[in-house]
Amino acid sequence: MIVRLVRVGKNAIRIFVENGTHSLPYQVNHQLSYNVLKAFHFSWRKTIKQIQHAKAVAGDKGITDTEILKKLLAKGKALYNILFPNGIEFLKKQVIFYTDPTIPDLPYEAIAYKGEVLVQNYSIIRQVEIPKRPKINQTSYRESLILTNPNDAADIKDLCNKEKEDLIKLLPNPIHLGKYSEISVVLEKLLQVKYFHYCGHIVKNKIFFQNSVLTPADIESMNLSHLNVVFLNACNSAQHQESSSSFANAFITAGVQNYIGYSIPASEQAARFIAQSFWKKVKKGISLEQAILQIRKEIISHFGIGELSWLGLNAFITFPHQKTLYQKIFSKVKKSMLMLFFPLLFFLLFIPYSQMQNKIEKQTSERKTHKKVGVRTSKQ
After folding, report:
1. 3-class DSSP state of 240
2. In 145-267, which ranges are continuous DSSP H helix?
């Protein structure tokens, strides 16, 4: 199932829904106001901060999982009513949300449906409608790049060291760069690997090294279409704002096939758990879509609803091009026409040819008969 948000003009957004059988536009008074989405996004971020603050101050005694789920469902219901005022049935277990960078990164995963948060039972995939670099590098790389804590931040030093040890055992042919790494080396290695994992801070859409800063602009200027998976295991690594680019958009623009990040902060314990679980599943050959779905359930099972990384984990996954209903119909009509065309062509070409051959053979036979008759007459 595909939900596509298209910005029309400055303050209007149209929503198209394709569930595999038809494609119809869903609109609020013929258009959805951009300001409404922006206001909801602000309210959503405020709710998340309140929940995380309550958890940080008083732990499980301050706010229960039941109360958290109730708040999430209230917001999810509001988002459902904003996006689908006429109501909608999610007929397939996989829902892909297509949007563009100028639309706020809404929590599609949190949409309330039939009394539950959508992502608890559905696979939610994101795609951003931005031009991508063409795939020009046909080299098949086998190495993986692990970049951990390049500015040697003291508060995550222990976490990144443990995560590095975990991933070196899981990722194929790992190359590790740490606190003394330089941006030029990182960018060079990105051109030579299949997988990239980052553990560290992202501050205002920037990754700080000891003597320099890596920005989304540095990434989006490259061609990284050979990169299969990029996982930035950092808070807000999938968040974007209208006024500035994000690493998610930058890597997607650079041609990266699959990008994993967070739209909200994740705890250190959950971040390490997710990194381990994700790459274990990739190593086993589990599809990224199923891996993310399983990880969400594992987080809830291990840490509870209050660990919101199960909700903030965003997956931008590229699927093989799938034809729309109209393309499928056209393809079948085209195939039927071709099936009729070749017999017709055969009939039009072969039948006249056969008739001509028969006529030639008949004329040849008549000439031979005529000659034989002429010979007999001369003898007589």
Report:
1. coil
2. 157-170, 183-190, 216-220, 247-253
